[in-house]
Amino acid sequence: MAVLTTFTILGPVRARRGTAELDLGGRQQRVLLAFLLARAGSVVSVAELVDAIWGDDPPASAANSIHRAVGALRRIIEPELPVRAAGDHLVRRNAGYCLRVDVDTLDLARFRALALRARQSGGDAEATGFYESALALWVGPCAAGLEPINRTHPLFVALEAELSQVARDAADASLRAGAAARLLPHLLRIAGWRPLDQALHARIVLALAADGRTAEALDAFREIRRRLADEVGLDPGPELRLAEERALRPTPAPPPVEAPPRETGPAQLPADHPFYTGRIELIQRAEALIADDHRAGRRRVVLAFDGMPGVGKTTVAIHLAHRLAPSYPDGQLYVDLRGAAPHCPAMPPAEALRGLLRSLGVREADSPADRHAAAGLFRSLLAQRRMLIVLDNALDHDQVRDLLPGDGDNLVLVTSRVRMLGLITAGAHPLPVDLPTAEEARDNLVRRLGRRRVEAEPTAVAEIVERTGRLPLALAMVAAHAMAEPEAPLAELAERLKGAPEPDLAAVFACSYNVLSPAAAQLFRLIPLYPGTAVTPEIAARLLDVNARTARILLAELAQQMLVQMRGNDYLMHDLLRAYASDLSAAEDSEQWRTSRS
To answer: How far apart are CA 87 and CA 584, in angstroms?
Structure first.
């Protein structure tokens, strides 16, 4: 029977083979192991390790030093391993390393599993037992002995914040169960490492008072009040003041902020579209990809929906999310990243993280100010949950990079006007959202206007479908006019589509147009001057009077913003986009210049 190798990070970083403790070597190797353990089975890049150990001034040999330290650690963990063998524990993955661990071999994984069982338990008394076992695993600050990095690096700051959240949840459960004394030793020990954590100290005051130790409770309040004044110049916040008041006048009231029932996690999905139709094949493909990933053991699944403006990416993603929501019992998160919002800047990742953390129960005061630390806390919280997350209207991969779970049985649906190659390279499945078929477009009008009205004017309906180019956003706008004018013939509405796009639709298109480089914007305005339906790089080169290589780069920029669609070597422009581009050219380009290019 193989000897089990176990690791600890909830306190000093240690490794044991059976009962024998292993000598991990110098500080560099222990820091390296600490990062691998803190990621609990996820990949840590060599670049991240270099940055952690040397900061802004790494030596030229830094990467080689990391590889040598990994080799030394591998020999320590598996001393019988043949030279150059990969090993079973510390493995190379892409541009980094991963330490294979689970609940039997890593105290952090065991802590998270126990905390999850506590949250999913049937009552507060049962939860208190699981919380007690979880908190007992922390024998000191995370990665103790590796100061100051374990106090300052975002990865370890996030783990400490995770501990604080679990400790507060544990205290609340024990207070509701009437078992405050049971967890007090653990809470007092953890509070010693977090001397300014007002929320945790407030619960200690309540727990002491609930145990009949009123004098000690008031002493604890006075001590945290003194420390706050001396060290940071603050007065106790409302939670601490309320805890003192309850210690002075004990009542059976609940703790100051009672955690919401775990069975009712956040449910932030917007309503499913009342007139949703079609896209059956796309939905089936998405569900098949999720099933394939799960069969392959990939717990986190990311689907990236992209498509031209107005094609219905958000509608599809929200519809799919509602179909799958019952499979994610810990709730659903939604955030509009405003990557395509007219006259509104895209949401910074740090702002999105703050909102997501609040949705997961993290108080504003406890949310790390550092973006990377906030991202680490977000990943830590999701590692213990099974959640569905919709990141809508993403600008680019950089905006969503820190909003993705690191582990756990989570599903992420991302929508964007651009194809995020970085996200796809990182394992997301691309799901292009194309135009609906003519039949699907007609069915959508039936859902909105009623079968009788649609079937009464089949020619007008066919014209509407054709003149909107089957674009769902345009169809919805026409249908809205028809619903507002129930007596107006559909033929009259079809006639109105002969002009330029609706102003609202033009504003939608403008969001993509306004971020183009000047040359790409100029090419976009020129394309309608070409009489054919498909544009090649050679045609674009002649229109703009540039070489073919430059034309290909500019067409790729247009395709990235979904203002044209690539089909083989050709680029197609939607009719409504073509009309929009033509209007722009008429307004911005001189007639002489336009004539010279046609």
So the answer is: 62
Q: Checking phi first, is residue 312 left (phi over 0); if not, alpha (psi -120 to 50) or beta?
A: left
CATH number of 280-342+351-369+378-432: 3.40.50.300
Of 564, 555, 567, the C-alpha closest to 523 is: 555
Look-up: residue for tokens 């919002």?
341
For residue 142, the one-letter residue type is C
390-411 residue pLDDT tens: 999 898 899 999 999 987 789 9
Around Cβ 183, how many Cβ atoms within 10 Å? 25
Cα torsion angle, 484, 485, 490, 493, sign: negative
Phi/psi at 154 (nearest 5 deg)? -55, -35
Which CATH fold would you assign to the domain 125-132+139-248? Answer: 1.25.40
Where does 383-487 have alpha helices with state H?
397-400, 421-425, 438-449, 451-456, 458-467, 472-484
Is CATH 1.10.10.10 what the domain over 505-597 is classified as, yes or no? yes
CA gap 273, 287 in Å, rounded: 19
Question: Residue type at 426?
Answer: A
Q: What is the pLDDT of residues 177-200, one digit of tens each?
A: 888 889 999 999 998 888 888 888
- Topology of domain 5-99 in CATH is Arc Repressor Mutant, subunit A (1.10.10)
Answer yes or no: is pLDDT of 376 > 90: no
Report CA dihedral (413, 419, 423, 426) to the nearest 10 degrees: 120
Picking from 337, 505, 305, 324, the residue whose alpha carbon sits closest to that of residue 420 is: 305
- Reference 205, options 163, 170, 175, 173; nearest CA is 175
Instruction: Print burial letters for 238-253: b (CB count within 10 Å at least 16), e (below 16).
Output: ebbbbbbebbeeeeee
- Phi, psi dihedrals of residue 390, rounded to the nearest 5°: -115, 120
Give the whole-angstrom CA distance, residue 124 versus residue 543: 72
Give the whole-angstrom CA distance, residue 148 versus residue 145.
9
Continuous segment of H or E residues that includes residue 394: strand 388-394
> Mean pLDDT highest for which of 20-29, 120-129, 248-257, 353-362?
353-362
Res. 88: pLDDT tops 90: no
pLDDT of residue 67: 85
Contact 311, 433 (CB under 8 A): yes
- Please give the structure tokens belonging to residue 348: 């910074």
3-state secondary structure 144-179: ECCCCHHHHCHHHHHHHHHHHHHHHHHHHHHHHCCC
